[in-house]
Amino acid sequence: MAALALLGVAAALGPGLAAPRYRPDWASLDARPLPAWYDRAKVGVFVHWGVFSVPAWGSEWFWWHWQGQHDAAYESFVRRRFPPGTTYAEFAPRFTAYDFQPRQWAQLFQRAGARYVVLTTKHHEGFTNWGSPVSWNWNSVDTGPHRDLVGELGEALRESNLRYGLYHSLMEWFNPLYLADKQNDFKTQSFVLKKTMPELYDLVLKYKPDLIWSDGDWEAPDSYWNSTSFLAWLYNDSPVKDTVVVNDRWGRGCSCRHGGFYNCADKFRPGTLPQHKWEMCSSLDRLSWGYRSNMSLPEVMDEMSMIEELVQTVSLGGNYLLNVGPTKEGVIVPIFQERLLALGRWLDTNGEAIYESQPWRVQMENTTDTVWYTSKGPVVFAIFLLWPRDNVLHLSSPIASPGTQVTLLGFAGTLEWQIQPGAGMLITLPSLLPSPLPPQPGWVVKLGGVK
Fold this sequence. Notes:
- By secondary structure, this protein is of the alpha/beta class.
- It has 14 helices and 14 strands.
- The strands form 3 sheets. It has a 7-stranded parallel β-sheet with strand order 5-4-3-2-1-7-6. The chain has a 4-stranded antiparallel β-sheet with strand order 8-9-14-11. A 3-stranded antiparallel β-sheet has the order 10-13-12, with no helix packed on it.
- The protein is globular.
C-alpha cells in the first residue's frame, strides 16, 4: 500500500519525478521512447546555410574539396574568381545575410506543409551560425552577418508554431585541435572538451531545440565524442528532456544502430518497412545541399519526384526532410520556393493521408510501385501516383465489406466501387481529373470499412 501511495504522489507531481534516469550507455539510451510529436509531424524542411554559400559552387564541401583534396576543378574556380592568395576565412565577411527575413522563411515553410525545420548551426567548416563562445571570430555574430541566425530563425519558427531542429557537425575539417586528436588516433579529446561539447551544451541551453540532427561523426568512435554522456544529460536533465528528438550520427558505427530516429545514410530508401523510426533527408538540388549559383533546372527535383519520395517514405513509416540551400544573402531562390509551395498545395488536399498516419499492413501494391498505403485508425488511404487511363483504380490489397465507403480527397461525394474478380477492389474515379491541368502528381482515395 505504501508503495502504491508513493506512486500516486509521483504521478500527481508530474512526469519529471517518475521518469526513469538514463545511463550513459546505448542499452539505456536506445530504450528511451521517441517523443510522439516527431512521428506525427512527418514533414520537415532542412536548411544548409553557411560560409560555403559564398563561393556557392560545387557543394557545401567546397573547403574540403579545395584545400583538403586539392581538387583541380575547385582550385581553378578559386583562381578564376578570387584574388591570388585568397583563403577560405576571407569568404566569411561576404556571408552577409543582408536579405534574411526569418519570418518570411517561417511563413514559406509553414505554407510548404512542414511541421519542423532543421537549420545548420555549424557544418564541417566549423563556422557557427550563432555567437558560439568557443568559436572566436568564426561565427555569425563576430563576422559576416553580425547576427544570431540560429536565434532569429528559432523565434520566427515558434511564432508560426513549427518545431525547431538544430543540425550540428561534431567534427571540423581543419580545426587544429581536431587534427591533433586525429593524429593521436583519437586517444586525446582536446577538441571534444574545448569545442564540440561546449557548443552542444550551449545550443541546448540557449535555444531549447526540439531536435538535434548530429553529423560529422564518422571518423571517430562515440567514446571519443562523449556522445552517450551528452545524450544522458539531454534525456535526464536538460530543459528539453521530455520533448527532444535526436538522430543516429553519434560516432563511427552508430548510424542505423543507435540514437533516436535513424537516418542511416543521406537520401536513404529502405526496400521494406523498417522496424525502427527513420527519416529520409533529400535535397531539392539533386547535386548539393548548399546553394550553387550555377544550378540548372534539370538538376532541381521536380514536383512529381518530390511527392513520390514523400509518399514512399511515409508509407514505409519514415519522416521526409526536404532540403533547401539559401544564398549568402539569405534568399531562398524562387525555384525552391515554387517547389516548396507545390508540396504545400498537395498536402493541403492530401495531408490527411500523411500527417499522424501509420504504415498499413501492406505498404505498396504488389503489382505496381505507383500505389502506396497509409492508415489512421480503421481508415486506410491508397495514394496513387498515376491517374488510370480508364478512370478505374485497381486495388488488390484491401478486403472490402458491404459497409465499405470510398472517397477521393479533394473531391466531394463518395465513389462507386465493386469487388475485383479474384481479390481487391475496382474503384470508379471521376471522369474528369479533380484538379485543373496540369494535373497534380498523386491522389488519395480514403477507404472506410476495409481490412
